[in-house]
Specification:
Helix content of chain A: 25-40%
Oligomer: homodimer
Number of helices of chain A: 10
Strand content of chain A: 25-35%
Largest sheet of chain A: 7 strands, mixed
Structural class of chain A: alpha+beta
Chain lengths: ~325, ~325
């Protein structure tokens, strides 16, 4: 109904969805973009795994963000969801709403890195919004669930926490530093998060439960504990914090962001103590830090301590409507 | 980042995505809403079929539309895409952007009608936008394509054309009538389109090519002809027009809307003359009108005639960026 751009829908789709169509034909894509729907073939004895996430300007990324970062993050948050299932991502569809037609997206590099084929999409005019659905598969019955934690499991996280929150605050000029390397590293963690796809696949059959940290540990861990029907205890002193974050803000603030700032897209995993070394070996092959931060118990709720004393964690993580 | 609503994300998801979770557990949904991603099981020897479409306020529906109609249409346009592949819809994921939290959607009735389970979703604040991805399956290798038309095929459409365009113009007060029944019928065709899912499934193995009519015949048929590597000829005098549309506007205007107004979500199918009676029998079992409007030829492009004379069809159908 509006009439605010120069490119036709087909040109836009060509441009935005070309991201991995340049690759050789894939036997798993029977019919890709250009028909009414995509036709895709799963390997034998696998289950389909599907995730969807939307990013909206002014809410998930600041107005004026680099379109490459927006595209990267939109795909990364979905790949991170598949990583948390231990699934192999294969295909993606994209629903883009654009205020105008002259933008470019950062989907290609990340899609190529994980072998994800763009198989469908839809572009409309409107306030900048990007919805991506990633489809993948996992060996039948082997998907990692949030609800699989067992009493006595260790609670483990990949990488470091709080960096993306710091990066966002640097972008928004809510905090600053003279150290350009520190700023660049933290901003990159916000703008170009790395979904832990390979680690998720390797954790299948080792970990008992997994989820990805999108809203912050204080918001996400209670969900895992609740669906597992267990309590969790976390030693806040063990939270993995990067050197960059530690040099930017005092320790107390760094811990606060690690708990509640969100957007890290690290994996939260529970594993029986007897298998934690197998998990460490997997992480080590990927040059990925792995940190035990607590354990699961019978009971309900999440308790937090610091230096042996009760610690008041933020009540909840990031919730778009609060 | 904004803070403009009263409900938390989980309450919203509970409300919007409950649409068919009330049903009994389904063996094809291994893991539904509540984990990082959905885990779904396809029947043996099937291919996965995936479609995505987005509706944006002010572009695909007028501001102030009944939320039930918006929800219905968002799901219907995707089901229509699967219908055009001859696929069976099974699951849907939903990405909703809402200006506020106090809305209700019309997804449940349509989802239930087609046995579609809601298996994932994402709700954010922002200008009203709804993206739905429908997933389904089709017997391996049997999906209907746009590119399968053969020289000599008849071109066939389901139902009547132009009604939804008339309905939209009634909603927008661009046209009016004193006959409330006529207005209601045409507005219903715009607000609550019926995707031809069952007919699409039945046409598999009979039709050579299929697509759904979302942008209008004049915009959509050239796409089918191009990917089939053929020309098409259409007799504009044969376009199926409803009594309601005929009573609302002069014949010339009715034909114009049938060709270019879009939003009808009828199926466009090509079939060898020897099989057209099989297709008629399928339509008849569904109480669905089927009309032969032309045929496919060797060559390129689409030609239109009316009463044996060349007819100038609108250059293209609905294109959101023009």
């Amino acid at each position: 109904m509006a009439n605010d751009a120069k490119l036709g829908e087909f040109e836009l789709i060509d441009r935005f969805f070309a991201w991995s169509n340049s690759a050789v034909p894939r036997p798993d894509v029977i019919l890709g973009i250009g028909d009414d729907a995509a036709v895709l073939r799963l390997p034998p004895d696998t289950d389909l795994v599907a995730a969807v996430d939307t990013l909206v300007v002014g809410r998930h990324f600041p107005a004026g963000s680099d379109p490459r970062s927006i595209g990267h993050r939109a795909l990364a948050v979905n790949l991170s969801d598949l990583a948390a299932m231990g699934a192999t991502p294969q295909w993606a569809t994209l629903a883009l709403t654009l205020p105008s037609a002259d933008r470019s997206c950062g989907l290609r590099a990340l899609g190529d890195a994980h072998g994800v084929a763009s198989v469908g999409g839809d572009t409309t005019a409107g306030p900048l919004t990007i919805s991506i659905q990633v489809l993948g598969h996992v060996t039948r019955g082997s998907g990692l669930r949030r609800g699989g934690a067992q009493p006595g499991d260790l609670v483990v996280v990949t990488g470091t926490l709080g960096d993306a929150g710091a990066g966002l605050r640097l972008v928004l000029d809510q905090v600053s530093t003279d150290d350009r390397n520190v700023a660049d590293e933290l901003i990159r963690r916000f703008e170009y998060p790395t979904p832990r796809v390979q680690f998720g696949c390797m954790a299948r059959g080792i970990a008992n439960a997994a989820m990805d940290l999108s809203d912050g540990l204080a918001g996400d861990l209670p969900k895992l504990a609740t669906v597992s029907g267990l309590a969790a205890h976390i030693d806040v002193g063990r939270l993995p914090l990067s050197q960059a974050l530690r040099s930017l803000v005092p320790l107390e603030r760094a811990r606060e962001w690690a708990l509640s700032a969100g957007d890290d897209y690290e994996l939260l995993v529970t594993v029986t103590p007897a298998r934690v070394d197998d998990l460490r070996a997997a992480a080590s092959r990927l040059n990925l830090t792995l940190t035990v931060i607590g354990e699961m118990h019978r009971g309900t709720g999440v308790s937090w301590t610091l230096n042996g004393l009760d610690f008041q964690a933020p009540a909840h993580g990031y919730d778009h409507f609060r």
